[in-house]
């Protein structure tokens, strides 16, 4: 591995935002049926010092301890909660959250680059998200988006990702050369624990929606990152290869792997080993999703569960140039605007 | 491994039933809103010869080719379709399907032993399933049941498995000493492909429902088999260990592994290797779910994807007495009525 390899974490959320953000959101939610009493955006005041502290004592501290350089940073996934309120509520909330991630990226330009949440709302045309998407790319330098395949929060009332209803988003993604991480938010269905079931189910579901469709024939350059190591997909890679064959689809490498990528948010060594053994190295992007769902120390190793760099470093499967691809090369390829931003800074 | 090891496949469905069964069901479904025109049960006539042929040319042929001895045999999972019609529709259908599996077990007593589907119906009290459950145990010698955590077929409108609504079923399971395989049926939600997303999601979901609850404190001897290798669970075992820790639950081995077992329906070698590396051998039961979702030949190996015995045989992780446990010992322990039935036949 080159000495110069940048360690790029493609999956970080602003889970440690100052308390004022949550307080504002609580007021917004409390006034859902009482628009006149909704808090104004201007009532949320968070200083640069507060932002700095929330990052320096949390994400940046851990990035330094663990040795990662740059995080693609988006609003807290579980707080997107697209199921709450209507489009206007989601729109205001998305704008606030995206601005905060942008400000973090301006305060720490060497360490954070933003990805946007969208103002999705159940039953609302995804095309309504385009103004916020374009604002984030144009004004904030966002290099990707998070796309929620289930804005209902666990009721799965939207059409599959292969449906033409989503195409306006994909057209803009292709136009602006940005990928989407397919990432749900909080489950409001009591069957699904948010981070233990809903997230992983959504990953598997999204992959299968792509597998059964010809989406990437319509959008040959569209790129999706499926987080959390791809849900159940790599573990059941034989099943998915077999299902594709039953459905008379091409081999998965031709059918999906020019467009779908998996992150390394798998919190134990055997899982990372399976992922890296089964999925081609060109389709794996380093990520930790820290500080996220699993914040504790693994009593079996003495290290943080979500310190995924340790698993890559300990891997006997990912060696040499393959590490460079997972840490940096693939991220530059999948996020071309990230690559351009880095090059503009001489990196 | 002892020469005498029985190879017990704990997960087989009657996917090859004579066409007359599907025809009858189609008539039942067509007359959902016209009860007077529903077909009578007596109109379904399938001879023993037809049953024999459907088994001998399919499951039994493959069992002989692959070298498995005995299959725990239940009605076709995707055909349970509990979301169709009301309780009476489900009840009639379950009775028919369970009787066919019983007849197969009588025709091939050395090779098949039945497990029951239940006449679940969305929004209907699970306790209504008890008469069919008891009939199958008492009259048909069933050794287990399949319990559908989502009778709505992908809308997830039932409470989690930890909810007291399910307790009447659990009380009967404990009383009769039978385990449940947690197995959904067809998805009627266009987001979820049945065998590529809904099945795996349900496995993960069920595990997490147990993890977040104290169900097994109330039922210390209750036993669940989570099929399809546990969905996403073993691949994300670190995540689940970490989530249990965040939730102040005991270690998973103490919290869940006296009660939860995984089958080996994982259709490639790296997946089986991950499963057997991560999950204690006492919690793994051999299974193939053939002839099921993935019926083709893996071009990478030249063998059937669902010939899971090959992966166990090729394993360098599962050796010696551990193979005996996975093939036979664990199944006898988890299905005590199977063990008793085998012993009664001198096996």
Describe this structure as you would to a colleague.
- The structure is a homodimer.
- Chain A has about 350 residues and is an alpha/beta fold.
- Chain A has one domain (about 10-345): TIM Barrel, CATH 3.20.20.140.
- Helices cover about 45% and strands about 10% of the residues of chain A.
- The first copy, chain A, has helices spanning about 20-30, 50-55, 60-65, 75-80, 85-105, 130-140, 165-175, 195-210, 215-220, 235-245, 250-255, 270-280, 310-315, 320-335, 335-345, and strands spanning about 10-15, 70-75, 110-115, 115, 145, 180, 225, 260-265, 285.
- A six-stranded parallel β-sheet of chain A has the order 4-5-6-7-8-9. Chain A has a three-stranded parallel β-sheet with strand order 1-2-3.
- In chain A, helix 12 (about 270-280) links the parallel strand 8 and strand 9.
- The radius of gyration of chain A is 19 Å and the shape is globular.
- The relative contact order of chain A is 0.13.
Determine the most extensive contact between two protein chains. Answer: A-B, 58 and 59 residues
Q: Quick one: CATH class of chain A?
A: Alpha Beta
CATH superfamily of chain A: Metal-dependent hydrolases
Structural class of chain A: alpha/beta
Average pLDDT score of chain A? 97
Q: What is the string of SSEs of chain A from the N terminus onward?
A: EHHHEHHEEHEHEHHEHHEHEHHH
Q: Name the quaternary structure.
A: homodimer
- Total beta strand runs of chain A: 9
Please give the domain count of chain A: 1
Identify low-pLDDT runs of chain A. none
């Amino acid at each position: 591995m080159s000495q110069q390899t940048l360690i790029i974490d493609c999956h970080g959320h602003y889970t440690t935002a100052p308390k004022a953000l949550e307080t504002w959101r609580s007021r917004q939610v409390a006034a859902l049926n009482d628009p006149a009493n909704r808090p104004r955006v201007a009532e949320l005041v968070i200083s640069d010092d507060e932002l700095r502290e929330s990052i320096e004592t949390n994400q940046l501290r851990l990035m330094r301890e663990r040795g990662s350089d740059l995080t693609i940073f988006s609003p807290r996934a579980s707080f997107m909660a697209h199921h709450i309120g209507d489009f206007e509520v989601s729109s205001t909330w998305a704008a606030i959250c995206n601005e905060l991630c942008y400000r973090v990226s301006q305060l720490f330009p060497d360490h954070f680059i933003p990805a946007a949440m969208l103002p999705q709302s159940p039953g609302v045309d995804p095309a309504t998200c385009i103004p916020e998407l374009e604002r984030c790319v144009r004004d904030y330098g966002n290099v990707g988006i998070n796309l929620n395949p289930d804005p209902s929060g666990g009721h799965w009332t939207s059409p599959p990702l292969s449906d033409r209803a989503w195409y306006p988003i994909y057209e803009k993604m292709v136009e602006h050369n940005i990928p989407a991480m397919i990432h749900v938010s909080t489950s409001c269905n009591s069957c699904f624990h948010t981070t233990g079931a809903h997230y992983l189910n959504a990953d598997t579901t999204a992959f299968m929606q792509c597998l059964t469709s010809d989406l990437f024939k319509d959008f040959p350059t569209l790129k999706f990152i499926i987080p959390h190591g791809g849900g159940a997909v790599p573990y059941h890679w034989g099943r998915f290869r077999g299902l594709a064959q039953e459905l008379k689809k091409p081999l998965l490498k031709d059918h999906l792997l020019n467009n779908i990528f998996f992150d390394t948010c798998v919190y134990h060594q055997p899982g990372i080993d399976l992922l890296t053994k089964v999925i081609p190295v060109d389709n794996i992007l380093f990520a930790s999703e820290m500080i996220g769902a699993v914040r504790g120390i693994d009593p079996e190793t003495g290290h943080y569960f979500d310190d995924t760099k340790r698993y890559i470093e300990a891997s006997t499967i990912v060696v040499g140039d393959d590490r460079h691809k997972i840490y940096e090369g693939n991220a530059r390829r999948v996020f071309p605007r990230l690559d351009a931003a880095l090059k503009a800074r001489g990196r």
